[in-house]
Amino acid sequence: MILSIFTLIGGEPHSAQHLTGSKLFPANAEHSQSQIIVNVERPEQFRYLDRSDFHKWALTAASSIKAFYKDYPLARTVITVHAGVGDTVLYGESTFNDELAQGEIEVQVGRETSFESLISSWTLTHEMVHLTFPIVHEEDRWLAEGIATYVEPIARKRTGLISEEQVWQELAEGLPQGFSEGGPPYLRIGNFRGTRHRGEMYWGGALFCLLADLKIRESTSNRMGLEDALVSIVQAGGTSASDWSARKALSVADAKLGKPVLLPLFEQFQDEQVEVDLQELYDKLGLVYDQGEFRLNDEAPLLPLRLAIIGNGGGK
Ligand SMILES: [Zn+2]
To answer: To 5 degrees, how large is the angle CA 225–CA 231–CA 236?
Structure first.
């Protein structure tokens, strides 16, 4: 049963329920219409949530995607919500249905979940990031998870859902999990081809994204970043609706950047090992733990890059 449909036409969210909202989607000539359908299975099972709450969650996540990618990448997305046990968002999964030409997201949400907990959940934004990138071969899966892990908090920061400090704290705490061999100072990382190790897939992939972002920014005087690369892939048609490989997507992005950055780094992470001193990286970015408390150091040498990553790109 389809419970709510809203269509983003020329920027204004319109819905079957006349959901009013601010101008989350300003008029855009290139992609004037994105339809998002929210299908809540047995909504009476949710103690504190009704369909309009799921609707708002979907809009909020879509606006985060728009804040990062400039546009919502698919014409049609169907979100199916299932009830589960507990008071948090439990699970998400996404794919593209070629037959119906639509992105599909399944999420499981605890029956006792509050509206605040739903809106602050990252899961739907993470799944929508997956829809912006090709559904890659199993052996490249870490790349897709890394992109979703890296982009999701930045995108949510840009819609004001979380703070700059939260983005970096989450990253600083997560990245060590990308090193399956463990132990500070976390020097070697890689050989990710086909990995099923969760830390490597999510956080190792996120470290690939952070290093790629810094590389791009350092080589362009901070005029471009990973977001320009990812946006160029979407604009060239390399979304989940495409049959592109990871290599093709990264090659398209490198062409946009005017130099091979992403593909060589990807190949290194895939089949070799890369030396990364995380502590040194944190020091340069100004990610500091002071007696167990996380804080940002605004005197750090890479401050302009850190600000550009979190903000709206470089000086373009
Ligand atoms: Zn994922």
So the answer is: 135
Q: What pLDDT digit, counting tens, does each position of 6-37 carry?
A: 544 333 333 333 233 333 333 333 445 789 99
Q: How far is the CA of 292 from the centre of ligand 1 (A)?
A: 29
147 and 253 in contact (C-beta within 8 Å)? no
Quote the ligand 1 centre to 151 CA distance (angstroms). 11
The string of pLDDT tens digits covering residues 66-98 is: 999 999 999 999 999 999 999 999 999 999 999
Say which amino acid occupies 133.
F
Domain locations in the chain?
A: 4-131, 138-310
If you measure from the C-alpha of residue 137 to the centroid of ligand 1, how many angstroms do you get, rounded to a whole number? 14
Report how far ligand 1's centroid is from the alpha carbon of 126 (Å): 6
Beta strand extents in 168-232 (DSSP E only): 188-190
Q: Report how far ligand 1's centroid is from the alpha carbon of 145 (Å).
A: 5
Nearest to 69 by CA among 119, 131, 8, 120: 131
How many CB atoms sit inside 10 A of residue 220's CB? 18
With bands split at pLDDT 50, 70 and 90, how would you rate the model's confidence at 125?
very high
Compute, in angstroms, the gap from residue 120 CA to the centroid of ligand 1.
Answer: 17
